[in-house]
Design goal:
CATH architecture of the largest domain: 3-Layer(aba) Sandwich
CATH superfamily of the largest domain: Thiamin diphosphate (ThDP)-binding fold, Pyr/PP domains
Structural class: alpha/beta
Distance between the termini: 61 Å
Radius of gyration: 25 Å
Number of domains: 3
Mean pLDDT: 94
Number of strands: 18
Low-confidence stretches: none
Number of helices: 23
Strand order of the largest sheet: 2-1-3-4-6-5
Amino acid sequence: MKVYEAIAQALIAEGCLDMFGLMGDGNMWLWGSLVKHEGFKIISARHEAAAVSMADGYSRTTGKVGVAMVTCGPGLTQCGTTLMIAARNRSQMVLITGEIDPGAKNKTQSMDQKRFTEACAARFHTVTSIDNMAEEIAEAFYTARVHRVPVVLNLNMDLQDREFDWDFEYRPSTDFLPPRVMNPHPDVLAPVVEKLAAAKRPVIIAGKGAIASGAREEIIRLADRVGAILATSLQGKGYFAGEAWDVGIAGAFASEPSEQLLAEADFVLGVGAELGYYTTEGGLLFPGAEVARIDIKPMPEEIGVIPGLFVQGDARRSVAAISEALETRQVRSEGYRNAETRAILDAPAHKFDAPADGLDPRAVGHYIAYGLPENCLVTCGAGHFFSFPAMYTALPKGAEIQFSYQFGAVGQGLPLAIGTGAGNPGRPHIVIEGDGSMLFHIQELDTVTRFKQQMVLIVWNDGGYGAEVHKLVPKGFEMGQSHWDSPDFVAIAKAFGGDGVLLTKESDLPGAIQEGLRKGGLYLIDARVSPTTPSDPHGKVYYGIPSKAPLLRPVK
């Protein structure tokens, strides 16, 4: 048996039956060994960075370790941005890469792969010898699982091709996982209980941790007891959809009534939500509030933009324990739940004037909601455009949305979506990406069609880099510096084997989405929106226009 065959056995033992990659000299023998295993599937990307982004998306929506595989040297350096994004998202990921032997005479693709990996905020693990191989592979997966960080598993090409002349015994990292901290001690919860008991205007903000633990009903029960309004981080969008006291996303993407109410809060409890820069608008959103966080991970590494109490524990169990403590003390409060709050939440939405130079992006965001089926998966890229679906698209029951905004990098939505789709086969999948971002990884449309994924892809097409447009224009620059004539995205989709339609009016969007879902495969909707209409966050910061975004409620 060859060493690469033993490594393949180790990866299968770690549960790696779904993988993403791009073949090269540094991984082709291992690749060939893996595909011989029953049930193993690898999605071959057209770019190494896209393969890593796919593994990231897979991890985000499945809770499993996402695994990608690329070749040595330039194969690894292509992945710098996507590794950094995965690190910022705290994704569980292992990136397997080959390495030129240090003694090789041909060093064309040789480099210091450890230094590069660490510069991308990932961990570096290398297989040093045949004798240590089993333990070192397990350590890499253990690190990814326990520390929730991308790990580069470095495989020397000369070592991979050696003979392995004895039985290979491998214990996967799952055999060694420590128990999670689930139930915080009552003494740790006591300060949070006291603050909630005394709060007059409490807010509970749920994030990814709350979703992962299934904390929704416990949070609602606690909010009912203390009279809290309910909100989410961006990644938790739609979690409380349908609840009467839901105010939607907190922070930079908050609606007009939400901003008004959140600014008056006197206590904010983040449940599985880090309450970072955007969720708190740089720490300015809750000027008179004390803050507490509940998270499964240990204490934050830094104080952050808004300091406060911290409880380590499972979100659902911790919230349940707080409710029980308040019930024991017979605490029940009206809190925020009064006629004045109700009047703010029920106020009529602002009426916007339609732009004359393209589809109204606010209306496009609004109409997306009418095409989304229950329990669908939505993947959204990042850029100026993603504020519109964040602030104007209501999600139906059971829907889940993933945003690729980590590290502030555009161009990641399409490959991330291939990974989220691969992790959720059979689930209706709608993807939203900007036109400039699409052109970063347009080649991955071929990956969608080659692997017969279902994807309704809405291209939010303002013919340029919208964020730059709305930063240049207020400074007196011409928007043409970041603007262009749009390519025919529908024709491109058809050239790759898909189908699509050019959207001519906003109200046609629900029907187009439903048509794409009916047809299956790749279906691209080219939505040519007004390039001069700023998003609410950009309008506020760069044009001094107050946000008028409506409070979202599920569509009927």
